[in-house]
Amino acid sequence: MPVGLLTLAGIERAAHAQLPPEIWDFIEGGSGAERTLTANREMFGRHALRPRTLVDVSACDPALTLLGAPLRLPLGIAPMAYHRLVDPEGETATARAAGRAGALLVAGMFASRTLEEIAAAATGPLWLQLYWLRERVVLAALVERAEAAGYGALVLTVDAPRIGRRLRDLRNGFAVPSAVRAVNLDQALTAASHRATAGRSGIAEHAREQFDPALSWTDLAWLRERTRLPLVLKGILTAEDARLAVEHGVDAVLVSNHGGRQLDGAMPALAALPEVVDAVPAELPVLFDGGVRSGTDLAIALALGARAVLVGRPALWGLATDGEAGVHRVLDLLREELEHTMALLGRPRLADLDRTVLAPWPCPAG
Predict the structure, then answer these.
(1) Is the whole-model pTM more than 0.90?
(2) How far is residue 33's CA from residue 36's CA, in Å, rounded to a whole number?
(3) Binding of FMN: at which residues (predicted)?
């Protein structure tokens, strides 16, 4: 293995070197001044670890069950659109890698492979992410297809009544190349995403046309009536919304600020995690995404109460560098680093990773 690929940072550099600049900016960029994008990473550095000694760590076990599905590690791949932007196989390669690693895959609504192709490639737990569209009949059809294909849960993104102001895409006049499509939707619904215009984003234009900004808590009942699948809300950052999610009968919540791509200045996901965990019953799973770049980051999020953690951009870095093998390498690195951290912490089980593991990072002298 090349020395540079021993960390996610090395895989990131390799992906950056080979992707076209406008594709890289679409994947990496945040909204506004990218304050939240940067803060997602910086928050992990505010936590120090409190290792315990003389503990038998000969076997560290990161396995768990999540919404009835067994996972070999508390890790999943977050929903992201258009994997074929970085690899010809796209989401099917990602699905195979996640299955090999024993990780969860959340397929995106704007996947560039069909739901059925992704399901056929998957050998592990598979969920489907949805945006709330103006045309509810389209949502209903996707839910029906997901159930028929064996998806295990629905993940409704609730922080995108409109797309954040992503300046990199605006500067690039970014549009999805015509060879890459959101194949699970009618072409007429996604036509705007392919229109390149100077100073405008095809993605933002498409969202403005198709996303329903009137979505409210009462609409969840409509979705519940159309599926038996568990419902996860993605984009929860406050205790208030966490409690409302419980009141409306959701099965899990995902603490996320959309990777810093929506409201710039929104609180870092890691900072929001404890208040959300404290606001919901202990049995309701709280998931987390936002800035995880190592197994130590993963351990910190678990210690703050996340049941499992999703990663987004790193999976696309792996896919860009080496297809299925690259995604598997990303997941395997995170597993290795998590088990290593658990051993050196003296916490060999996931249940041992609680807030006693953490302390504030000391302020620098002077």
Answers:
(1) yes
(2) 8
(3) 79-81, 129, 157, 234, 256, 258, 289-293, 312-313
